[in-house]
Fold these 2 entries.
Entry 1:
Amino acid sequence: MAATVIDGKEFAARVRGQAAEHVAALKANHGITPGLAVVLVGEDPASQVYVRSKGKMTVEVGMNSVEHKLDVNTSQEDLLAMIDQLNTDPAIHGILVQLPLPGHLNEDLVINSIDPAKDVDGFHISNVGLLGTGQKSMVPCTPLGCLMMLRDHHGSLSGMDAVVIGRSNIVGKPMAQLLLGDSCTVTIAHSRTKDLPDVVRRADIVVAAVGRPEMVLGDWIKPGATVIDVGINRLDAPEKGAGKTRLVGDADYASCAEVAGAITPVPGGVGPMTIACLLANTVTACCRANGLAEPEGLTA
Ligand code: GUN
């Protein structure tokens, strides 16, 4: 039987709708408008596209969007001074420094200079520690989006076997923590894992986040398992015309969809959830900053 396709585009629109409702209530009941600041250093074209898209969606849900575009040669001192200013600005509830940063800047130092309460990426070492110890934190957007989709599809994840392929700080590790928090039995696999297909065959939930196009094959998948594909890889597609490309995930969609019970497509799966969860995190940060209840449906 063909797998259920988990529509991330539709799901992300639903999350943004919920965020917009919370924003409207914050304005009406408390006179507060959540504010998100995005800092972009340099002119990396992919980063510019991301930042534009973030700004547009922030405004669409009724929040204030502030963008700081800094010269590629900005010094670390100047960048830290800008973050310091945003940390103390009461109108700003979320701060995102777009990565990657130019090579002369120390990414860890910059991220760890953000007020953890405003760290809507969930990358600050304090948030990493809070998540790892099961405490209230800001949760990285992509894993949060994956968790929301899994909970929506399965209800409870308790007792399920989950394999996360990839051990990055941004996706693999926090994803594993979140699944553990929902009482899954979690394995983190990576490039050195022995007999990866066999490890993946045990999983009720497979999260593919390795950055290797179409690596996970259908015969690795336990029949009925759920495949969450975090990969976004651009491949040449000469069949579409000279110089054309196509996006593929880390899972071979055609073969996995024949065996899986449910699967996220690429594009239109996990991708749209990332910005939706950034907006959700900004609403969460704003509620916490003002001593208000956690916004329902938007947190881990
Ligand atoms: N660059 C690409 N994706 C992201 C993201 O989610 N957060 C940040 N800070 N930078 C990124």
Entry 2:
Amino acid sequence: MRILVTGGAGFLGSHLCERLLTDGNEVVCLDNFFTGSKQNISSFAANPGFELVRHDVIDPFKFEVDQIYNLACPASPPHYQYNPIKTIKTSVMGAINALGLAKRLRARVFQASTSEVYGDPQVHPQPETYWGHVNPIGRRSCYDEGKRCAETLFFDYHRENKVDIRVVRIFNTYGPRMHEADGRVVSNFIVQALKGEDITVYGDGTQTRSFCYVDDLIEGFVRMMGQTETPGPVNLGNPGEFTMMELAELTLKLVGGRSKIVHKRLPADDPKQRRPDITLAQKVLGKWEPKVPLEDGLKRTIAYFRKRL
Ligand code: NAD
Ligand code: UDP
């Protein structure tokens, strides 16, 4: 197949492009390089099945492809809050443009949605049936509400125009090719520990997240796109749940060195707890479940950053 990946030069997008090429597909990677980079795709850029297009998803795009994965959108809080209006445009207009193309081509189209649609959840762990607890006017809203609106668009195009959609809600995923200055917690802690700088825990560090290694997630993407049982939404993530203090201590132990843990102000609306209920994914994605424990995934990610720094 020929497959379009928007946001293909980003962290997840580059791993997805690589996997699709390995499976024998042709890949068109579309990216505006806001948070992505040519370096992320350098190891497979010379593959004759790979094409790179610099383009912004808020402007319509036209390709002849069999499938579309829509990943374009900054994902780390500092990056998506840098230009919040642009973030909403990227989510909403990007979704409309991806769906319009899918409609014309009768192509299956995948949306990288997020656990942020659950906001600061009052149900724990979060099943897909939970509608969420989202502040519509806060600093995180440009991302959360943009992604919620994109889900709405996907399901309206599905109901109104019979577009063949697949929607996944991704929980915190980490691994090699995260940007050194990405700002998300795993890369921040690793880079700080490797540089011997203070490890910045926001708030008291009792808030929790569930961390999925990138390879496990990408396997889930491909299985989601390959099945016909449900358009989604389907949660994808690792149900192992850790406090940020636990993550800081584990990172320090694995990196070694003499960094100190310091506490910084907790950002507004920071969700207090998050863990995916992956019952549905296990059922519809051929017994899919994450295989890489946090410690192993951190070791691989640390090895990547050690080389880069
Ligand atoms: P990332 O920032 O590394 O990748 C995003 C990519 O999209 C980058 O290459 C960026 O340059 C590109 N992009 C941004 N705006 C664009 C635009 N207007 N036009 C074209 N390209 C644009 O982040 P990531 O972690 O790889 O996330 C990929 C997708 O997965 C995003 O949609 C994100 O919301 C979603 N997601 C990721 C996670 C996670 O934990 N990594 C969690 C939930 C959802
Ligand atoms: N966090 C932290 N130190 C950092 C970066 C983030 O303690 O240097 C915390 C943040 O407040 C949040 C958790 O780690 O509670 C996950 O943050 P991230 O930005 O990775 O993702 P998200 O909040 O979107 O899940």
